[in-house]
Amino acid sequence: MDRVIKKKKWSKKRILTITAVVAVLALIGLSYYFTSGKSRLNVDVERISVSEVKKGPFQEFIPVNGIVLPVTTIYLDAIEGGRIEEKYVDDGAVVKKNQPLLRLSNTDLELSLINQETSVFNLLTQMRISSNAAQQNTIGKLNQYTDVDNSLKEAERIYKLDKKLYDQNAIGSQEFRQAENNYNYQLQKKRLSQQILNKDSFSTKQEASQAQQTIARTQNALEVMRRKVGDLIVRAPVDGQLTSLDAEIGQSKNKGERLGQIDVLSGFKVRVDIDEHYITRIFQDLAGDFTLGDKTYKLKIKKIFTQVTNGRFQVDMEFVDEVPQGIRRGQTLQIRLSLSDETQAVLVPKGGFFQQTGGNWIFKVSEDGSKAYKVDIQLGRQNPDYYEVLSGIKPGDKVVTSSYENYGTMQELILKK
Hints:
The protein is an alpha+beta fold. It folds into 3 domains: 38-59 and 343-416, conserved putative lor/sdh protein from methanococcus maripaludis s2 fold; 61-67 and 267-338, Efflux pump adaptor protein, beta barrel domain (Elongation Factor Tu (Ef-tu), domain 3), CATH 2.40.30; 108-230. Helices cover 35% and strands 35% of the residues. The protein has helices at 12-35, 107-167, 173-230, 353-357; strands at 40-44, 50-52, 54-58, 61-77, 82-87, 94-95, 100-105, 233-235, 240-243, 252-253, 258-275, 287-292, 295-309, 312-320, 332-338, 343-349, 361-365, 371-376, 378-382, 386-391, 398-400, 412-416. The protein has a 6-stranded mixed beta sheet with strand order 1-22-18-17-21-2, with no helix packed on it. Strands 4-11-14-13-12-15 form a 6-stranded antiparallel beta barrel. A hairpin with a 3-residue loop joins β19 (378-382) and β20.
């Protein structure tokens, strides 16, 4: 006899079907949860940087590097070209003004000096000969003048004597007229001799003056040539330290070629390279400081070089109040160059978030610390440590300042510990 078998209410097939339906419904629910409203992303708290927004003193500055240089540098150039024969000092030596540093040789220049000296000697010899000839000529004219004067006196004596005799009818008219004519002739001759002598004296003085000027010019030219030869010995123009000496025995140097430089040791300055982005914000007397040996020293801009090379320009800064002990030429200093005065501001620490947001928004952490949500902000000035916050967040708020590179378009971060 057949038996009725009761059908099971929860068969295996039914259970699998119900399970599949529930799973699909769960997936649909989760999908709806995550796609409706804000997009969310789970983030491990240990993998991000959370910083607190604070209010405090803020000063806009940029970090720059400066090289210590002497306050004054005198360059040494070859005034005259030649071959280096001797070196009296080595690079780095401390020298005194007019101390010999190098000796060059230049046979052409030395030969020109000899020729110039010979020319001057020949000119002086010719001048002496001409002067002697002029003196002899003057002496001859003086002798002639003396003879003429003596003849005039004799003619005058005879004329006066004959005049008395003629008045007394002791001599005839012919003899008296002869004596009178001779007297007048000698008188005219003396006047002419006087004129000749005066002109000779004037001419002699003029020639002597011209000769002196010629001699002076020639001697000046000789002196210049001697100085040019003397310049073959290179001397220190000032007291200081000889640096960058580029000279070896046997080496030839052209006229005007750089030989080295002398650093005046009376003080130092700092030559600073600055990005051209800041060129409109750099002015004289702008302040900066640096730390050396646990002590802070102040600087200020003294000179600005506006020429831009490879995207950078330079300024010279001088020390204010105190110069560090033992500072040396060529030493590099890390300087904080201030671009503004110190003020109170709302500050957020710098971080990688700025690269993705451009400073337009940031993830702000909720009060319970369970999540961080996107808020719009406005940033102002900056320095290497902080951004100045103008709006969007306030002191006491906590924000995520690490990089947002992996967050895509997420609106909210779920912070997991």
